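re: that complex we talked abt at group meeting.

here r the seqs, copy pasted straight from the sheet so there may be weird spacing, ignore it
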Amino acid sequence: MSQEKLDAIDNCLFELLELVENFNEIRIKSNKELSSGYFNLAKSKYSLGAGTFTSLSYDKRMTCGAKITCEKEEEKELVQYKLGGEMYEKKVKSSEQKSENESNLKNRNNEEKTEKEETQVEEIKFRNPIYWYGVLVPQSLRSSQKDFKNEVKIKQNLDNEITLHQNTGNLVWDGAYILSKYLYRLKLRDKKCIELGCGTGLVGISAWTYGADVTLTDIEDVIPLVEENVNFNVDKVLKENDNTNDNQLTNNIKLSKDKIRIKTLNWGVENCKELDTFDIVFGSEILYYSKSHKALIETLQHICNKNTLCVFIYKTRNLGEEHFFKLAKEEGFNIEYIDNKKLIEEFQESEYHLIYMKKN
Ligand SMILES: C[S@@+](CC[C@H](N)C(=O)[O-])C[C@H]1O[C@@H](n2cnc3c(N)ncnc32)[C@H](O)[C@@H]1O
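got the structure back, here u go
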């Protein structure tokens, strides 16, 4: 099999891993709604008395309140899931509407037809099981229903959301978020920085707000998104600064758009010839692909001098991260692991690691 094909298979695998991660996040949200739903249901059961909600409560009126339909977008070959059905409320309203019609009909003395309408109204109304419990429905039962309904919506979004991410650079990875929150610990003002595999560009854009002179880089496919994000965010920050005229907002740092630029950079010795050395190199979640490690080290060799600090963040995914560090050491880089206590609190116990690397 050709190298090209092998690389394509590897890329598919990484896309798959990303989808799995997104899937898990959504599943956690969904489970949260489900457990909250069951908890509220248990509370209702407690307040209404044992035996209120048993399988005997369910009868033939129990019909589905929502349907999920599946449509394929022809060009993109993507399947979109749409939530159909009324999820109860509208049906009840429409039953009220029908009650009005019903009285009009009565006025017209068309009794036979009215009787038929009446049954229909009742049937629609009873689709919402909450009405089985009288007028004084406990709040926890309503909350429980709300949680279960939210859960259905989350499931519906599940597939639609994850199919949006067709490559790894078009979403903010947790690493970028953690590193951006760490930047205040570094002296970035007027430092010449580069971000490798910047994806959405969060880390680089954040470094720019601390007064760094930043070059954001990624492969060609990702660049339009980086451009969009830089233009939007940089213009916004500059405009807010102008409006408030508050230099304290940026610690008296003079921000300007010419201190942030974007460059296509596919790692490897051939592609970085035009690049100079930098004071700081950022890399967030870029170690997941061991086939690229050699090219990444070649790039680092070219853009780092003895004073350059490389700040990398990665998650242990057992995708050969250790291979990268072994190679880096062989190529003369020192590696220092930063204490996780210095990361934002929610990630201190995580599998994320922040490292500093410097050439010997
Ligand atoms: C997992 S994403 C991380 C994106 C971003 N740094 C973040 O943390 O949100 C990996 C990024 O590395 C880029 N990348 C992968 N291989 C690369 C290569 N050989 N040269 C340049 N960029 C590469 C991808 O395009 C992608 O944007």
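couple things i noticed - The beta strands are 67-73, 78-84, 192-196, 213-218, 260-264, 280-284, 309-315, 333-338, 352-359. Residues 189 and 319 are 35 Å apart (CA to CA).
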